[in-house]
């Protein structure tokens, strides 16, 4: 694969002439032909990947109720414009200005939620230690309750698909229609006009919108 220069400044370091693009056409089973586009800056190391299907797609929502271990193996194609949601747990990840696309499986997506929750847990635990050292107890109870809620979320996430654990739904909401859950049990629907207007669309470098 050959790098091609892109005539845009780097969105991070703003340098001109350091941004390059690699485009690779491939076939994802059940998803069809797509182009994997990676844009990178050789100066600061910024990098962004996205997936663009060969055929036009409609804005849509893919959902899968995760009830067993086999569902954790289901493939997920997530573009940079996709919002990921687990409604039963009130968890949602919106695409930010540096969002990037990836191909993974359901377990990999759940692990991304787990990593973020563990990071927040560590911050809260450090905050509690600091309050104890400074004899600040007024907000200690509130912090402990937050930790208990996060630990409960972790338990639901890490035990999904196992006996005795309640199933939950993984949703991919993509206003560009580039995302998909590849599983016979997964369902697809079109997004309403209200949903499309309310959903963020992630980064929009000139190279992707051209």
Short description:
With 210 residues, this protein is α+β, with helices and mostly antiparallel strands.
What does this structure look like?
This protein has one domain: Jelly Rolls (Sandwich). The protein is globular and about 55 Å long. The longest helix has 28 residues. 21% of the residues are buried. With 210 residues, the protein is α+β, with helices and mostly antiparallel strands. α1 packs antiparallel against α2. It is built from four helices and twelve strands. The C terminus is likely disordered. Helices cover 27% and strands 31% of the residues. It has a five-stranded antiparallel sheet with strand order 8-7-10-5-12, with no helix packed on it.
Topology:
Layout: E1 4-5, E2 19-28, E3 32-41, E4 47-53, E5 60-66, E6 75-78, E7 83-86, E8 91-93, E9 102-105, H1 106-133, H2 140-158, E10 168-174, E11 180-182, E12 187-190, H3 193-198, H4 206-209
Antiparallel strand pairs: 1-2, 2-3, 3-4, 5-10, 5-12, 6-9, 6-11, 7-8, 7-10
Please describe the structure with a list of short key phrases separated by commas or semicolons.
210 residues, alpha+beta, Jelly Rolls, disordered C terminus
Q: If helices are DSSP runs of H or I spanning 4 or more residues, what is the number of helices?
A: 4
First-last Cα distance: 21 Å
Kindly give the count of domains: 1
Low-confidence spans: 206-210
**Backbone shape:** globular
